């Protein structure tokens, strides 16, 4: 099969790659049949999480402490940069399939996976087709590694108690000022669960993707 685009699907903290098939199923409902997607499912390392008594989880990076009072929690910056580099390597590999056309590459993530999708995209040397983030945020630790103004679609819920809306919104506003094209869908009644608000999210995402694909 000749693929027209590649989507790198990044799972959430403590989850596994196959959990991202949930989003693939929705994408397949809104993407025209002539668009052939190569779905790639990287797996986060198993690592000790400091704020959870060093219990081990699948995690892109360690949480030193949790978010408190709308203030972003501290993470292991080294882990973040290492994982962004690994995603960059995947992008470098995939672009060869598309004859060097970076517009055919997309990053999509949920929760911690959305954080990595955003951070990896913003620290990548080339502008890609787009970054899609479900209920994550841009980490403060990526500021010194920002390289490319990317086009971004993100969504968050007002009832999210895992990553507060204010934390996500603050950094989206910051990167808009840096020149990134960010479409931010805020859903007042949505929480952090993947299914919460999913229909409205996919409807909005379809409109955004329709502008990306050449049918």
Describe the structure using short key phrases.
32% helix; single chain; two-stranded antiparallel sheet; 215 residues; 5 helices; 20% strand
The multimeric state of the shown protein is single chain
Could you say which overall geometry the principal axes of the C-alpha atoms support? Answer: globular
User: Strand tally, please?
Assistant: 8
Average residue-wise pLDDT: 94
Helix content: 25-40%
Beta content: 15-25%
* Total domain modules: 1
Indicate the CATH topology.
Answer: Rossmann fold
Number of helices: 5
Q: Structural class, judged by helices and strands?
A: alpha/beta
Succession of helices and strands: EHEEEHEHEEHEH
What is the end-to-end distance? 18 Å
CATH superfamily: Alpha/Beta hydrolase fold, catalytic domain
The CATH architecture designation is 3-Layer(aba) Sandwich
Q: Order of strands side by side in the largest beta sheet?
A: 2-1-5-6-7-8
- Radius of gyration equals 16 Å
**CATH level 1 name:** Alpha Beta
Largest sheet: 6 strands, parallel
Unreliable stretches covering 5 or more consecutive residues: none
């Amino acid at each position: 099969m000749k693929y027209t685009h590649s989507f790198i699907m990044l799972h959430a903290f403590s989850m596994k790659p196959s959990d991202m098939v949930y989003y693939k199923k929705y994408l397949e409902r809104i993407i025209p049949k002539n668009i052939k997607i190569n779905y790639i499912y990287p797996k986060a390392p198993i690592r000790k999480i400091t704020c959870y008594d060093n219990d081990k989880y699948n995690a892109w990076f360690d949480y030193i402490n949790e978010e408190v009072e709308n203030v972003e929690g501290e993470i292991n910056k080294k882990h973040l940069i290492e994982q962004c580099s690994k995603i960059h390597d995947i992008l470098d590999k995939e672009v060869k399939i598309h004859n060097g056309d970076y517009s055919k590459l997309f990053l999509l993530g949920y929760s911690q996976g959305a954080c990595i999708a955003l951070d990896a995209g913003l620290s990548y040397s080339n502008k890609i087709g787009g970054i899609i983030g479900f209920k994550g945020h841009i980490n403060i630790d990526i500021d010194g590694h920002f390289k490319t103004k990317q086009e971004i679609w993100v969504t968050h819920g007002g009832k999210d108690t895992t990553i507060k809306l204010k934390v996500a919104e603050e950094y989206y506003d910051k990167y808009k000022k840096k020149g990134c094209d960010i479409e931010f869908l805020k859903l007042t009644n949505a929480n952090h669960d993947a299914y919460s608000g999913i229909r409205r999210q996919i409807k909005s995402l379809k409109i955004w993707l329709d502008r990306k694909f050449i049918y």
